[in-house]
């Protein structure tokens, strides 16, 4: 997006599944130049799925939408995309309002008076009306009238709901004029759109010090403003594990260099955006196969602080004392960063303990914390920061489409639920019908007082669409989603959630899932069967385990205790199969997660040294907690390639290694063990020969 130009892109249209011959599809682009209400065509017969729009006016806001078209007609338009550009509209004495303070249920909206000739400074003071819109609804309703000030606090908002606000002005004794440009509070946009594209590896050749990631930002206007720029979080996983962990957050740029990667491992990276309303969904995963030689010299690594919940469910920050050369007593300072702000502000100073209890955090914000050791001579280097990510806001309740009951050859009964509005407001309903290939909706009943209606006079071999529009005594609400009656068979649809897996024996589990449904009401119902597919990790190949399952549950037998599995379900009919459900993972073993950083060397003597390392943790799915021990392996460089066990069943995260020769070099590495399962080794640490008398 430029100052006066914008490039729009959209997903390609899909032809009907049952179409025998697909006519060429082109696209029609329409625009709405706010505050005008009319839609005007900008371009048609567009063959590509993107279009470049030049010469946008700087004093207008725009809505854009796209229709697919072929020789048989046009599709329904897409949801409109709002592109705000104007600070104020011509002839309107109010600037675009801004949101200056926001809480889960309240928001304060502020605006400025613009010097418009028809509203001179000698006129009477202006009074303002604040209006609100709740997308996807299109109607505006007044929140406050005759506001004398230039700001207003709106209360009683629903957490997680999207809102738009605009302002109208009037003089004493006059009527309200045209509205100002609107401002949006997009709380749920972060759970539905990804403003990231083209995540790629920027390095042409590996330099064995890290990889540089780069990505593009997709322009979604509500995601970015000068006051609150869009920030990013980089996440990483190590296949075959599907556990993602943050690498860095709060990035203001679209590139980042990831360091401290381990040899002989594969990685996946993805990026999220950090918005004022929460985290966005992640970008697609970028696989990186990374190899580098063994390190030369030891490099002490600072301990990573941890965020834990204590017995009273309070959040506590804990850390280990850093390894320093000074013997002076250490005190600590805890600092906090609350994106979008990049400033670190102190929470507590002069802490003598190695933990701190954190209070007063907001329920829907993200935070980062860091610890700075201090001596009497001044502060030391900060420990690595640790992040706390807020949970996403709950989704709003969307209206359901009507149900078709009592389906006969020439009649049916429509049934629907009352919309979620004040139950004391009386509602009536209008029933509209559409007969494809016609795109025209025609009313077949108005003023219906009940939540059902009997439709008659249908032809058995025709397709129909029905929609219901609720009305109050003063205005119409948005129509409910339309429902389709089709004479053609359709594929079944499974709910996107994963099936449930319950262990019923040492080698068996019981799978269960929600029944599939037909996404459209079909005159001829086809029987639905199910297929169970299985994948043995770390393999990526799905194999059919059972076909033609008529029930919504299945008993899986013969599972091995040393393997892990994934299962998914498909719905089958004679017309076609559904998309597979999300997979459920069945964990059969407790593989510890071991940070593979190189051990730390301390207390160096000619014939001994103390090794210390970070602890291993068990995955959250572990039902029993086996003890974790460690194995120390040693290698003499003259015997490169041969590792031998120096000590096993070590219960602690440090060990005193003795009987070393001062004229020899050594390599050490660590493995974690639990339930006779051993992890991959840590990176080796290099101990150089010591001077001898």
From TrEMBL:
Keywords: Repeat. Residues 1-90, 93-191, 195-293, 300-393, 398-490, 495-593, 595-693 form the Fibronectin type-III domain. SUPFAM superfamilies: Fibronectin type III. It holds the Pfam family fn3. Gene3D superfamilies: Immunoglobulins (2.60.40.10). InterPro entries: FN3_dom (IPR003961), FN3_sf (IPR036116), Ig-like_fold (IPR013783), Striated_Muscle_Regulatory (IPR050964). It comes from the Eukaryota. PANTHER family: NEURONAL IGCAM-RELATED, TITIN. This is Titin.
